[in-house]
Fold this sequence. Notes:
Chain A is mostly beta strands and about 110 residues long. Chain A has no helices and twelve strands. In chain B, the strands form two sheets. In chain B, strands 2, 4, 5, 6, 9, 10 and 11 form a seven-stranded mixed sheet that branches.
Amino acid sequence: xxxxxxxxxxxxxxxxxxxxxxxxxxxxxxxxxxxxxxxxxxxxxxxxxxxxxxxxxxxxxxxxxxxxxxxxxxxxxxxxxxxxxxxxxxxxxxxxxxxxxxxxxxxxxxxxxx
Amino acid sequence: xxxxxxxxxxxxxxxxxxxxxxxxxxxxxxxxxxxxxxxxxxxxxxxxxxxxxxxxxxxxxxxxxxxxxxxxxxxxxxxxxxxxxxxxxxxxxxxxxxxxxxxxxxxxxxxx
Lengths: 114, 112
């Protein structure tokens, strides 16, 4: 069965420092991977996705993610964190039936301190 | 497009009452999903539709929960009777075929 794991409940980083939010996945076929961000009292917003192609995917707000097939990981990164990046981040994998159904990780709270 | 629209944004109701949550997906999208978010359980998929037809309702917690999609532009999630443990944020999302899903702002339900 497909699954996604986000091993850290919270990540703390100082403003201006690089950030990484970790995600690992388990699928039987080719992975379709996504990152979403949720700001307080808001819905989830799409950040980026990996379907095929380059292992480094660029997305919104300066975020990027690196797909690593051998490590079954899809870590979210940003070279220089902003206080406004503080939010809840979800990694997700698409269901093998290709229905658009997403299987989400438990979420990681990113706290960027000034 | 205005995105996925959910109503109401907030709902406070008494235990035992019927609650109806509403969702208008993005025009042209053929998949619609209902999710529930709580601190304890995170984000859970309740049910999803394809072309207005329910495909998988295995996430619906109990028979008290029901969902309908009478047409391509409208869906409801109903809880009858409601209980305090149903308190959560309920999200609706839609997507076109297998592309990324777009989420509504959510309905925060409080059952007292």
